[in-house]
């Protein structure tokens, strides 16, 4: 009996015992479906995280003042700083002069208070965000009309603002360009400053938005010149952080290390604080690695079902050998070799697992797509994952089918013919 005949006999056996065959496959179906669905959801989340990181600036490197001793219970922004601990405008200018050929832009921002803008009977909440001329590039802001904040606006502390299309639509209607040049007054707790609209940007939902935040009526940012929010916050002239964009081809982690080394010369006598750098490239790589490790771990747990399913296949194949003892005796009496008998039962076991694996792949892909879509990261399994799952299911069939097949091959033909 050749391989083709063995496959045909195996399929005939499946059709004859449909319920038993399905129950035999069930463990394989559940195992493969679990692994495929987990890998699909993990793939979708990894892709979503990478996309979010890219939108935040894949080449961004953030330079920040950090506590030297992370074990004192106060690290990062929690540690109180004095004016002497902050980076001065002169330090940042020195960075631009020293690393100018290696960076495409440098951005500084400082959040301001939240207020309300009223135009007639219409109102909208807005948060003032002070920025320099380079921050829009850092944030990858997409301008729709007008212009962004310029260096002249920052130097002069001009009362101009770049607002979102959401705010303009709510206050002035759908003709966005008509809002350019109009003035808005922002009612704050202590004052009501007025700004002239010089630009309109496209609002995009933040990648890591607060789950409780409204998506239909979000509180958007009004970008104003940096000195405005610094004056409102009474934060002095120093900065705790700024961000640079490295030129294409320059590793962000390496650039950040050299900038922090350069600035730490100013902090040699500062016993509490120093300068550190965080590369978005490194953060994205670490996040992707974490997601991959998590998916792998969950897949291994799902793979336990495959082990249980394989044991179930072995059990049914042993039952099949017992039921077909006379058939084996007849085949051996007609000249079938031990290898022929062994191949027949191994092929049957592999067919059972392959069909179960194919059903599991389809079920896992459907569950994975639904799950990833619910997490707003729709994805389908990769071709590699599908081929791996099918190959692994066949390997399970071969491994767990070998013992029953070997037992069948070693039956004595005379004893087998006497079996009732």
Note down, in words, how this protein is organized.
The chain is of the alpha+beta class. Helices cover 54% and strands 18% of the residues. The protein contains 13 helices and 11 strands. Strands 3, 4, 5, 6, 7, 8 and 9 form a 7-stranded mixed sheet that branches. It starts with a helix and ends with a helix.
Blueprint of the fold:
Layout: H1 3-16, H2 18-57, E1 60-67, H3 89-99, E2 103-107, E3 109-119, E4 122-131, H4 135-138, E5 143-146, H5 151-156, E6 160-164, H6 165-172, E7 183-187, E8 194-201, E9 220-225, H7 226-233, E10 241-246, H8 252-263, E11 273-279, H9 280-323, H10 325-333, H11 338-374, H12 383-409, H13 413-418
Parallel strand pairs: 4-9, 6-8
Antiparallel strand pairs: 1-10, 1-11, 2-10, 3-4, 3-7, 5-8, 7-8
Helix pairs in contact: 1-2, 1-11, 2-9, 2-11, 2-12, 9-11, 9-12, 11-12
Keywords:
alpha+beta; four-stranded antiparallel beta sheet; elongated
